[in-house]
């Protein structure tokens, strides 16, 4: 028996194929102890139940198949790849069809007809070209807090999000088309359209809209410090007295200019004759009033209702739609939207101007034809 100090720390070698474990104290050691344990044949790894037999592997298993199942496995993989590719092709085709539909609708998801909010004032779209995506880009769907919602405005609200009322833009388009038809017929019948707003920064929008209508469009002026003009009480209900002073100022300025040209004496005499009792010419009666901020124009709306003048107004979620004749449910706090709506309504008024010119040209042609027919009958 060897003494204890003759043992050294060695290593256990990997068991051999016969199940033997060998311990060696190192290459320099002269003494070696071998521990051999014979494993029975019935407990070998080959015959144990730890791994299934190769002959029992079914077709398509995750384990490595035999050579006779390899072709079946390849066919299954090919069929799966073909099915995946077919699903991908169908999905991409559906996306292409949806993209084409969205492009026809002018959605924001495409770049074919993307809206540019900066161009609303200079180049506004017509009522027929206006889409839901354009209104969303102009923030027309944003309302006020749900606690401020007017009860009469519930049918015009789509829902709420983050305690904020969201307006139904489908109804906004419907009401806007109706308002465009009204202003088109008004201008076609030679009616005066008055634009008014109470939001700072929108004076240029109503001024451009009135200029598009020519002599049929007027805008509520603003002060020299770029503030909104205040509606003078009684301009509609008591126009004779209210407009007398401004009309006299205009006449005096015209008279002073005429004196410089040397024709002031005759014009002054004619002016005194026409100025006697001709107060009917001082009346101001627009045929339609477009109010882009009804909350800030209550006096104007009250006078318009007393004089039975139809009105078009932008109605937010906290405004009663009954205050105007033709409401347009939209966000009245957005300068971008005010520019868009003013431009769209002005484009509709321009269509009315073109229709009136076409009617006038047809009447002139018809009148000249009647005159020619009358002269021919006289000659005969």
UniProtKB/TrEMBL annotation:
Single GO molecular function: structural constituent of ribosome
Which residue ranges does the record annotate as region Disordered?
A: 18-72
Q: Which keywords annotate this record?
A: Ribonucleoprotein, Ribosomal protein
Any one GO CC term of the record: mitochondrial small ribosomal subunit
Which biological processes are named by the entry's GO terms?
A: translation
Ranges of Polar residues composition bias in the record: 32-47
What range does the record give for the signal peptide? none
| Start-end of Low complexity biased regions | 18-31
Q: Which InterPro entries match?
A: Ribosomal_uS2, Ribosomal_uS2_bac/mit/plastid, Ribosomal_uS2_CS, Ribosomal_uS2_flav_dom_sf
Assigned protein family: Belongs to the universal ribosomal protein uS2 family.
Identify this protein by name: Ribosomal protein S2
């Amino acid at each position: 028996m060897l003494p204890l100090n003759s043992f050294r720390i060695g290593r256990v070698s990997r068991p051999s194929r016969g199940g033997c474990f060998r311990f060696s104290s190192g290459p320099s050691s002269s003494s070696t102890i071998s521990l051999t344990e014979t494993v029975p044949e019935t407990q070998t790894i080959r015959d144990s139940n730890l791994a299934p037999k190769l002959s029992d592997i079914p077709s398509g298993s995750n384990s490595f198949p035999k050579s006779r199942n390899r072709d079946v496995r390849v066919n299954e993989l090919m069929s799966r790849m073909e099915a995946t590719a077919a699903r991908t092709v169908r999905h991409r085709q559906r996306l292409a069809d949806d993209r084409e539909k969205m492009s026809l609708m002018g959605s924001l998801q495409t770049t074919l007809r993307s809206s540019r909010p900066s161009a609303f004032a200079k180049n506004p779209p017509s009522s027929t070209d206006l889409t839901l995506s354009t209104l969303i880009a102009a923030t027309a769907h944003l309302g006020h807090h749900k606690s401020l919602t007017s009860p009469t405005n519930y049918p015009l609200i789509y829902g709420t999000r983050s305690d904020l009322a969201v307006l139904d833009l489908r109804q906004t388009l419907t009401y806007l088309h109706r308002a465009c038809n009204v202003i088109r017929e008004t201008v076609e019948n030679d009616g005066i359209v008055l634009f008014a707003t109470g939001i700072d920064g929108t004076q240029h929008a109503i001024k451009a809209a009135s200029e598009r209508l020519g002599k049929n469009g007027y805008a509520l002026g603003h002060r020299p410090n770029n503030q909104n003009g205040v509606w003078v009480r009684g301009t509609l209900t008591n126009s004779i007295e209210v407009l007398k002073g401004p009309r006299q100022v205009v006449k005096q300025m015209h008279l002073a200019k005429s004196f410089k040209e040397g024709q002031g004496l005759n014009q002054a005499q004619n002016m005194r004759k026409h100025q006697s009792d001709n107060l009917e010419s001082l009346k101001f009666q627009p045929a339609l009033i477009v109010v882009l901020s009804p909350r800030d124009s209550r006096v104007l709306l009250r006078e318009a209702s007393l004089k039975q003048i139809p009105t078009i107004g932008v109605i937010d979620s906290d405004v009663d739609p009954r205050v105007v004749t033709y409401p347009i449910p939209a966000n009245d706090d957005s300068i971008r939207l005010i520019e868009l709506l003013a431009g769209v309504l002005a484009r509709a008024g321009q269509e009315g101007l073109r229709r009136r010119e076409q009617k006038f040209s047809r009447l002139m042609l018809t009148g000249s034809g009647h005159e020619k027919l009358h002269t021919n009958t006289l000659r005969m």
